[in-house]
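Example 3.
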Amino acid sequence: DPKIIQKPKYLVAVTGSEKILICEQYLGHNAMYWYRQSAKKPLEFMFSYSYQKLMDNQTASSRFQPQSSKKNHLDLQITALKPDDSATYFCASSQGLGGQDTQYFGPGTRLLVL
Amino acid sequence: QQKVQQSPESLSVPEGGMASLNCTSSDRNFQYFWWYRQHSGEGPKALMSIFSDGDKKEGRFTAHLNKASLHVSLHIRDSQPSDSALYFCAVSDSGYNKLTFGKGTVLLVSP
């Protein structure tokens, strides 16, 4: 059974619209993250959460808003979508926030903005 | 300048051969170096981490770290076609376990 679920697998959106990417983890972890992977840039850290609290935010734009309704959920809301937002978005989780804590990645949501 | 640089960009080895990947960081505040592997259409999967100078071995994978030069290498012994993937080096810093990734090395193992 998959331990980190991301929905949907693929997403097509029009410029200016808003989408929510879903992430649930069933590993019992306390920390969750979002990363982005595009053709132009390597895997890029976006956010880290611990016990549903935002710990680190490396996104320059407020159009990206994480939402945590439960400890094992971390959704990503993206507003005013732009073609440059086209990428694969990965959710990850780890037991804690230490540098030695292994981050486990989900299968990703591939977003295409037209 | 990118914080984590990997070489080569791509590598081809025969089945049963040794693959060697390199990574250098410019971040002296790193906590751990990590190696991740990503097969096409999947999320990255952690292979191993290393913090201390010297070698760390896990099965067919050996990582070697030189902290003075901030250089880490990954050696894959007895490479298999299933090892064909994109390999990332990443560093975790002293903050909230943020991983900074390199651009990756594409490894192709031919039967």
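Chain A has a mean pLDDT of 94. The two ends of chain A are 33 Å apart (CA to CA).
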